[in-house]
Amino acid sequence: MNSSTATKKCKLFAKRLEPPKTSLSEKNDLALQIITLADDVPYNVQMLAHFIWNRLSVIKVGAPETAYLTSGLIKEALNTLVRQSDAFYTQIWTNLTSNQKKALAGVVSENGGNLLSREISQITKMPTVTMQTALKLLTSQNILRQKEKEGLVHYIFEDPFFAHWIRFFTFLGQ
After folding, report:
1. Is 142 in contact with 158 (CB distance < 8 Å)?
2. If we measure between CA atoms, which residue out of 130, 85, 94, 139 comes closest to residue 112?
3. What are the Cα distances from residue 46, in Å, to 35, 61, 146?
4. Which three-class secondary structure state does DSSP give residue 1?
5. Which of 2, 50, 119, 134 would be a feasible disulfide site paired with 103, CB 3.0-4.6 Å?
6. Are residues 40 and 74 in the same domain?
7. Residue ending a domain, choose from 40, 69, 84
8. Same domain, 63 and 42
9. What are the phi and psi torsion angles at 156 (to 5°)?
10. Residue that finishes a domain, picked among 42, 65, 84
């Protein structure tokens, strides 16, 4: 997402946030955190915002003085959302080959870039051609997609929450 688009989205989103004694800049930062964690995928932004809203509603009943948006609350909502999708993501993960899992781990750890480098080949213990094949298969399965970023090809998740699940629940989270 380019910076002007991000700024516009954050301003629109931030206007809807009502944490007490929070500056517009802080609201923009919180809105940007939500948009970034959802990888700027509208459906995922809406889903994460919905989880946050529900969590705030529960907090409001028990302790209304603490019912405001924070970075910690956003992370908690993301964790809850990913945990609730565990069965779905586990099914996808178990149907992948070992090389596909390594490729996804590489995408997560390297933010989708530099995946055909010598360093990544050594880390994943996969030859470059095997990484290319795994990435091609993951793309054809609609798990990943290619995105040009700064003149280079990066791989990003079709479902950004799957990347969070991989961080939380696989060998990367240990």
Report:
1. yes
2. 139
3. 9, 23, 23
4. coil
5. 134
6. yes
7. 84
8. yes
9. -130, 155
10. 84
80 & 96 share domain: no
Percentage of residues of the chain with pLDDT beyond 90 = 53
Clarify whether residues 40 and 113 are in a common domain: no
Instruction: Report if pTM > 0.85.
Output: no
CA distance 145 to 138: 8
% of the chain beyond a pLDDT of 70: 85
- CATH assignment of the domain containing 97: 1.10.10.10
Q: Which residue is associated with the tokens 């007490």?
A: 20
**Domain span holding position 33:** 3-84
3-state secondary structure of 153: strand
d(CA 174, CA 63): 34
Distance of CA 26 to the CA centre of its chain: 21
Fill in the DSSP letter of residue 23: -
Q: Are residues 45 and 106 in the same domain?
A: no
Q: Which residue has the higher pLDDT, 144 or 10?
A: 144
Per-residue pLDDT tens for 4-29? 565 555 555 555 555 556 677 888 88
The secondary structure of the chain in percent helix, strand, coil, rounded to multiples of 5, reads 70, 5, 25
What's the domain count of the chain?
2
- 3-class SS of residue 155: strand
